[in-house]
Specification:
267 residues; mainly alpha; 2 domains; 9 helices
Length: 267
């Protein structure tokens, strides 16, 4: 039953992705409402699937890659729906929903053995939850950065099209990016701390300096520098947008490193 709900969720997210992207090319209030409706129903089935999984497993304190990526996808949709409810920003769905769909599909594509070989990642839910919440913040900042660069390019080229009309003002996108990092960074920091504590209990060392842990720390330092630059040195606009995109690429590389590590011996 849980698998069925996940399959339905992926189908709804895929249909919503196609619908949202169609809205960019052919603006339509009716199509926007249909897209939002499919996303909301998909979020409901996604929620049911996650709850059913938590009820059905014997050890919920040991989440694997599938559950972590699924939770990341679920949180992305939750953030989108919250922003949509407050700001009526339909175009955000054209960026957030595809990202959530890709995350959920990637989770489903992982081999069954992937979650069983990385005890540092498979620790307590508090570590995974905090890390994924921080990653969601960076993902929203990434999306805001991409939207900023697109809108900035349209303004400079003086191309007034349907996408230009739908995209928010540059100041709003810059503010959204900053607030997302402000919220995401402390959550990721707490996730790293709890992960290090769990590693100490399970392996006797806070850090092993393996590639994925090292890259995670590099990503943390990078976002710390970005946050510091934004709050103290006034980094704004295009520079900040580029940095948030680069930072999220680092997050993705860290996740890929963890997944690849799962196929090798535990170090």
């Amino acid at each position: 039953m849980t698998s069925l709900f996940f399959v339905v969720t992926m189908a709804l997210y895929f249909a919503a992705t196609v619908s949202f992207l169609a809205c960019v090319l052919w603006p339509s209030d009716a199509l926007s409402k249909v897209s939002l409706g499919m996303t909301a129903v998909g979020f409901a089935t996604h929620t049911i699937a996650l709850v059913a999984w938590m009820v059905g497993v014997t050890d919920v304190s040991l989440p694997g890659f599938y559950e972590a990526l699924s939770f990341f996808s679920w949180m992305l949709i939750l953030v989108f729906l919250a922003v949509e409810f407050r700001h009526r920003l339909h175009v955000l769905g054209s960026f957030i929903v595809p990202l959530a769909m890709v995350s959920l599909v990637a989770a489903a594509a992982l081999p069954d053995t992937a979650p069983t070989l990385v005890p540092v990642f498979r620790t307590l839910w508090v570590h995974v939850t905090l890390s994924m919440l921080g990653t969601v913040g960076f993902a929203v900042a990434f999306v805001a950065g991409v939207m900023y660069l697109i809108q900035d390019g349209l303004l400079k080229s003086k191309r007034v099209n349907s996408l230009y009309v739908k995209l928010p003002a540059l100041d709003f996108l810059d503010h959204l990016s900053q607030q997302s990092i402000v919220l995401g960074f402390p959550l990721l920091t707490l996730g790293i701390i709890t992960g290090a504590l769990s590693a100490e209990f399970s392996r006797g060392a806070y850090l092993n300096w393996n590639p994925e842990q090292t890259w995670a720390l590099v990503t943390w330092v990078f976002y710390f520098a970005v946050l510091l630059g934004r709050l103290t040195m006034g980094w704004r606009a295009k520079r900040a947008a580029y940095l948030t995109i680069i930072g999220f690429v680092g997050v993705i590389l860290t996740l890929i490193g963890v997944v690849l590590k799962s196929h090798g011996p535990v170090s």
